[in-house]
Amino acid sequence: MVIFYIILYSSLTLSLTHKMSEALIQIGVVGCADIARKVSRAINLAPNATICAIASRSHDKASAFAAANGYPLTAKIYGNYEALLEDPDVDAVYMPLPTSLHLRWAVLAAQSKKHLLLEKPVALNVAEFDQISQACDSNGVQFMDNTMWVHNPRTASMANFLNDPNRFGNLKSVRACFTFAADSEYLNKNIRVKPDLDAHGSLGDAGWYCIRAILIAFNYELPKTVIASHKPVINKDGVILDCGASLYWEDGRVATFHCSFLANLTMDITAIGTKGTLHVHDFIIPYEEKEASFYVGTESSFDDLVTCWAKEPSKLTVKTDLPQEALLVMEFARLVGEIKYRNSKPEKKWVVVSRKTQLVLDAVKASIQRGFEAVEIQE
After folding, report:
1. Helix, strand, coil proportions of the chain in percent (round to 5)?
2. Final residue of a domain: which of 147, 176, 194?
């Protein structure tokens, strides 16, 4: 098998041992969710950002979280969210709160002129999403959701292949999957199985990634209709534990996905074109932190006796000097810096792609609720 190596360097990562000399974007963390440990590390790694504050509903919890996650000694500790949002030294906030709390606190953050890195799924529905995005727009603050893998340089390399008419041709279909086997404690106590906290269940936690992968492959062109797969697994409180859906475009292109808390860890994408095929097996969290691979085949065929492949797929490996979550923070901080120091306008791309992801998620949920009817996407 032929292996190609693509090494990408960012002009912002000249040194990984110290922060850039220019002013750093001051980020406050609103909430001590488990995912905030990973993002806190990412902020510490990003050369253009720093953690300046942490807030929890308990001062002691916030203090313990800061100490356990390498926060700067200068980071302020708050025992409530409002105090952090009122802090004039905070440029932006990372918000890992349960989805049901996003509307209230994201809107308040925007009204407090804090740029917003918001955990996914963004909202309970697109109506709530629009209220959040409107608050960001009217207050001139940058919005981005915390979908980390799209900031990995591998994703751009994959997109280049999918958009190459000579190697991939025209897209015909996409399949995406993200599953993991949650233990009994997770399935009974985690916020993602509680209807009053994260009511989307596996559809929001895992399906969001699959939907985003499909949209990237389709250059963010929304499907015409969405049909949920029959017999999703739903817990006693009405939260989805396992589900799937098919997405249809008017020209016959189709995509499918499956997401689950009840199956072995799998995170695959297969995209099939008229000339080529792309496979990736670790698209959300790469096997290795600083390199990620995918497989491509162009005009694949069998040998003369049809006993083996005449041309095997090639493995492309993309290396990076920072993990994907730090690259996300870097891009977010860069955009905030452009607004703060150069009077730029917020980049609207991230609102658009998040909203489209939310629209498809809403359609899948609506199809389930309507007995697996086809649901048309309405922008």
Report:
1. 35, 25, 40
2. 147
